[in-house]
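User: Fold this; tokens only.

Assistant: Input:
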Amino acid sequence: MRRISRITVAGAATASLALALSACGGTSTSSGSDSDGDKGLAIAYDVGGKGDQSFNDAAYAGLEQAKKEFGYETADVEPTDGETDADKEQRLVSLAKQGHNPVVGVGYAYAAAIKSAAEKYPDTTFGIVDDATIESKNVADLVFNEEQASYLAGVAAAKSTKTDTVGFVGGVDIPLIHKFQAGFAQGVKDTDPKVKVLSQYLTQTAEEGGFSSPDKGKTAAEGQIEKKADVVYAAAGLSGQGVIEAAAAKKIWAIGVDSDQYKQEALAKYKDYILTSATKDVAKAVYNLAKSVEDGKPETGIVRGDLKSGEVGLSDSNPKFADDAELQAAIKTAKEKIISGEIKVKSS
């Protein structure tokens, strides 16, 4: 079905706005078959950009699915170093002016920019991943119960450790990442109270590189491994690649995050040491928002993915994980109890 809220722009305006986009972050577009000149889904990446093998790449997968199914023109725009909220807002406004709908900011850092851009373009649907603070009739807050998937990761870690010590590496010390840590630690302790959980955050702010510095992740993981951790879980974006590298070097288990990192081409040489990944289906959330706009019934308000909806969970691509009957039974039991409400997973 055709979208009912459309914005058309003249070719000259589009050209000038493309220049504006290039000034506030790199962009790539893909032409489709929207004959009336209107455009579809556009995403603006979080810190780390496309190629992080995690959060941003999941959003891109949703964009690719929408482009393939709906045959329209899409755009994806990279962040820039040291950018301000005003820079982010300019990026989103430029995409909306060009006729993209919906426009999605990937990551909580886009909250202020999304709020402002949505006020200026009330006929465009905006989405933001990992923020639930915006109250606007044309904004969808795409959020997840990451703590639930992290709880299951904790169960897996507790059942897999041989040293009774596991580690958690968080990218930035913020409430969002606290959810991952809290769920993981609870899952470990509920499974085996004697297992010790080592936790470390790489930076206090994203600007310091907590989500974009594999070297920081590697150093943190090496420190935990020296303290006998033999399973390390990272919720650190691109920095998590360093955690996985460190684990593989010492032949211990790593647990990935957001995407199924066992399947990531850039991490292929480490995959035998990626036990599982605590996933959240950002791709599905982004695609679903695009589909809702295409169907003329745009999603708005808080749109939450959890274990019950299947939008968070654990990947089972590694045969050593999938074929471990005892481990799978423990995870299945924990999942059922979370969904039923018998287990209340902490988020902080």
